[in-house]
Amino acid sequence: MDLTVKSENNVAYMVEGIKGKLKVVAAQSIKADHFDLEKYEDLLDMYDVVMSKQHFSISEIEALCDELRLLKK
Questions:
Q1: Whose CA is closest to 43, among 54, 53, 32, 28?
Q2: Which is nearest to 54 in space by CA: 25, 21, 13, 26?
Q3: What is the spatial distance between Cα 61 and Cα 20, in angstroms, rounded to a whole number?
Q4: Of 3, 11, 70, 71, which residue is least crowded by CB atoms under 10 Å?
Q5: What is the per-residue pLDDT across 7-41, written as a single tens digit (0 to 9) for each?
Q6: What b/e sequence results for 30-41 when a residue is b if at least 16 CB atoms lie within 10 Å of its CB, and e otherwise?
């Protein structure tokens, strides 16, 4: 998948990857259509950070979830 291309499919892929990696309890409430392509680069940056780490502290998960909320439409 070429994540350098802005697309709804890539947003969906990244959102699902982030949710899976963070194992968020309320993951079903985070949907790809909640995110706008205007913030694609920010979402891509978050995706890269999340995918690069093996483990997350509770405070890191909370901070990342807060950031996801800010990126929503």
A1: 32
A2: 21
A3: 12
A4: 70
A5: 999 999 999 999 888 887 666 778 889 898 999 99
A6: bebeebeeebbe
